[in-house]
Specification:
The protein is globular. The protein has 3 domains: 4-155, Roll (Ubiquitin-like (UB roll)); 163-551, Glutamine synthetase/guanido kinase, catalytic domain (Creatine Kinase, Chain A, domain 2); 566-692, Four Helix Bundle (Hemerythrin (Met), subunit A). Helix 6 packs parallel to helix 15 (458-479) and helix 20 runs parallel beside helix 22 (649-677). A hairpin with a 3-residue loop joins strand 4 and strand 5 (90-93). By secondary structure, it is an alpha+beta fold. It is built from 23 helices and 20 strands. The strands form 4 sheets. Strands 10, 11, 12, 13, 14, 15, 16, 19 and 20 form a 9-stranded mixed sheet that branches.
């Protein structure tokens, strides 16, 4: 491996490269565009395009692409060469400012949720100058937004950028009240921890369900799973270590701050975590990370599984979204300070977050609602579907003292007043983090632990940014007109914490008692995507996004339609795959095994009529019973898929969850029972043991 310092960012047209290659005028114009949002002139765009092209060609690139993130959850790219005809037999290598700034890919096959007619082919990409261009697979990739002919957002990047701008605007308003005139921008910072599984490709290729759906639809429990807890943070297997080294190198080339790698809880499960960056960069980098993880795995004859629950009964994979907000002057607004003013500011931002989470529980739940994540949330390995906030013992004691006007004990007894001249120091909480909490405060950030491993982090962070912007907007509106700022600040924080303390929970989110307690508190418990999405278009959600210009009402409705359609399609594909596996492979295999067993019994009795074959006969009866049950459920599943569905999208999603999915569970139960009784050589698919322990 090359020196990391030389390798890092070598395939990125970053700020250092710009300083070296662009004229001072061009560089300053780009910098002003990024910092202040001023438009770039076509002349500046032409110079940047020319230098991007030359830089890329120096590194072997022959094509360029507008790299964007449509509403499919993956990235998209259409590659064009730099070749421009010159005369009858000559070509030039060209790339103009117009091509840099805007593209027109065919958008007819991307989901739009009704924002564009299906016969309309054009979609438009527009360069995001806040994100650096990079080289991947011999192409210069230009991060862009993606929109319709009428300008409506068809991607995940546009709303994220809008939410970041709005959060900054409202946060700066609040900071001005504290006398901070230096801050020009506030940025949401994100560090997504990416969990994944690695299995041998030769074994993967024998599993139709993994290939078509990303998860195993059948699979008897193996003799050993994660019971011994001997995998977590354990010694990394040589083959996996080689993969991780290769992965790091590829990520570092692209300027992705891959920092931590280790084994996760389940066999074959691992985690990669980056250093924090702004939310836009973090989202781009995470999308790239997921793509590269899969590519690099192929080089090592392995497959990287990003599904939230590839194996039943085994820990699933999440993506912990560590979220905070920081100023352009280097201040983390969720870090307790050492001065009264700093801590008053911290408590105000903390109160805004707590209020926002409580008021928009359903929206945050919707932001992580996917068919894959339904298998994971609440499954004794991930947070429950109930939204709550964990603060830790120290911070909770501070909040309680504010609510109750009691003394807070820290370095002696002190009455906690939010007035900026009297607030004592707030220590950084040393409480052990709560792995059962959906939103856990970890000293200077909140860890949003509900995200699924395959999910784009854009949606959840758009929601967090927008919710925080709304609460800060309300606070600024109230405090800007206050005659006595310290008193008004104290009253505001106390009132907010008192009203919204129900959302604070430091206990075990896995216990049944919490479900009962949450219900008493009036908290939502949306256990599946079908139920969660019913809340997506609540008037208050529409008002929130429209007020802050994150989405139009049409854009929200489109996304809801796409989410519902995707949910039904995923379950439908899984159901049809199950039927296919049963009819073509599992039933024939079980029938043959049963027939062979019956022949063996008959052969034994032909020699000795009184020979005891009761064990074989009992097994045959059970095999026959389970086989019949399997075929009954397969037929029921076919009927359920063929039945006419409601034209109402919510009713259809409900049908797939509570009718189709339930039958799938019964079918799996029968098949897994058959696998446990059938000889390994007779079973048509690799077992869980082979899958989970395939990488030596």
């Amino acid at each position: 491996m090359e020196k990391v310092t030389e390798l890092f960012g070598s395939m990125v047209f970053n700020e250092e490269v710009m300083k070296q290659r662009l004229s001072t005028t061009c560089y300053k114009a780009w910098k002003k565009c990024v910092d202040e949002g001023t438009p770039l002139s076509l002349e500046t765009a032409h110079e940047m395009a020319a230098e991007m092209k030359n830089w890329a060609m120096d590194r072997g690139a022959t094509h360029f692409t507008h790299w964007f993130q449509p509403m499919t959850g993956v990235t998209a790219e259409k590659h064009d060469s730099f070749i421009t005809p010159e005369g009858s037999s000559q070509v030039l290598m060209g790339f103009s400012g117009k091509e840099l700034v805007r593209g027109e890919p065919d958008a007819s096959s991307f989901p739009s949720g009704g924002l564009r007619a299906t016969f309309e082919a054009r979609g438009y990409t527009a360069w995001d100058p806040t994100a650096f261009a990079f080289i991947k697979d011999g192409s210069l990739c230009i991060p862009t937004i993606f929109c319709s002919y009428s300008g409506q957002a068809l991607d995940k990047k546009t709303p994220l950028l809008r939410s970041m701008e709005e959060l900054s605007r409202q946060a700066v308003r609040v900071l001005r009240l504290f006398g901070d005139t230096d801050v020009k921008k506030v940025v949401s910072q994100v560090g997504p921890e990416q969990e994944y599984f690695l299995i041998d490709k030769d074994v993967y290729d024998k599993r139709e369900d993994l290939i078509l759906t990303g998860r195993t639809l059948f699979g008897a429990k193996p003799p050993k799973g994660q019971e011994l807890e001997d995998h977590y943070f354990g010694t990394i297997k040589p083959r996996v270590a080689a993969y991780m080294e290769d992965l790091d190198e590829e990520l570092w080339k692209l300027g992705i701050l891959s920092k931590t790698k280790h084994n996760e809880v389940a066999p074959a499960q691992h985690e990669a975590a980056p250093i924090y960056s702004d939310a836009n960069t973090a989202c781009d980098h995470n999308q790239l990370t997921m793509e590269i993880m899969k590519k690099v795995a192929g080089r090592h004859n392995m497959v990287c599984l990003l599904h939230e629950k590839p194996f039943a009964g085994v820990n699933g994979s999440g993506k912990h979204d560590n979220w905070s907000i920081s100023t352009d002057t280097g201040i983390n607004l969720f870090r307790p300070g050492s001065t009264p003013s700093q801590n008053a500011r911290f408590l105000l931002f903390l109160a805004a977050f707590i209020k926002g989470v409580d008021e928009y529980q359903d929206l945050l739940r919707c932001s992580v609602a996917t068919p894959g994540n339904d298998h994971r949330l609440g499954a004794q390995e991930a947070p429950p579907a109930i939204i709550s906030v964990f603060l830790g013992d120290e911070l909770t004691a501070i909040v309680d003292s504010i609510i109750n006007d009691t003394q807070y004990v820290e370095q002696g007894k002190k009455t906690l007043s939010i007035g900026v001249d009297s607030l004592p120091a707030i220590p950084q909480d040393t409480t052990d983090r709560n792995r059962t909490s959906p939103l856990a405060f970890t000293g200077n950030k909140f860890e949003f632990r509900m995200l699924g491993s395959s999910q784009s982090i854009s949606g959840p962070n758009t929601a967090l940014n927008t919710i925080m912007a709304e609460e800060l907007s309300q606070f600024a509106d109230e405090l800007e007109g206050a005659g006595d700022f310290p008193a008004a600040l104290h009253d505001l924080v106390k009132r907010v914490l008192t009203k919204h303390q129900r959302i604070i929970f430091n206990g075990n989110g896995y216990e049944d008692a919490w479900v009962e307690e949450a219900e008493k508190r009036g908290l939502s418990n949306l256990t599946c995507t079908a139920d969660a999405l019913k809340t997506y278009l609540q008037p208050k959600h529409i008002d929130l996004f429209c007020k802050h210009h994150i989405f139009t009402e049409e854009e929200l409705a489109a996304r809801n339609e796409i989410h519902l359609e995707n949910y039904c399609e995923v379950i439908g594909i899984e159901a049809r795959t199950m039927i296919d596996m049963v009819k073509k492979n599992i039933f024939p295999a079980v029938s043959k095994f049963s027939g062979d067993t019956a022949k063996a019994v008959a052969a034994k009795k032909s020699v000795l009529a009184d020979l005891d074959c009761s064990d074989e006969e009992a097994m045959l009866r059970k095999l026959s019973r389970l086989s019949a049950e399997m075929m009954r459920q397969a037929a029921a599943l076919e009927d359920a898929l063929a039945a006419p569905h409601s034209t109402d999208a919510y009713e259809t999603a409900h049908y797939y969850r509570y009718t189709v999915f339930e039958i799938m569970g019964k079918l799996r139960g029968a098949v897994d029972g058959l696998e446990a009784m059938t000889a390994s050589k007779a079973w048509p698919y690799p077992s869980y043991t082979e899958l989970l322990f395939s990488v030596k």
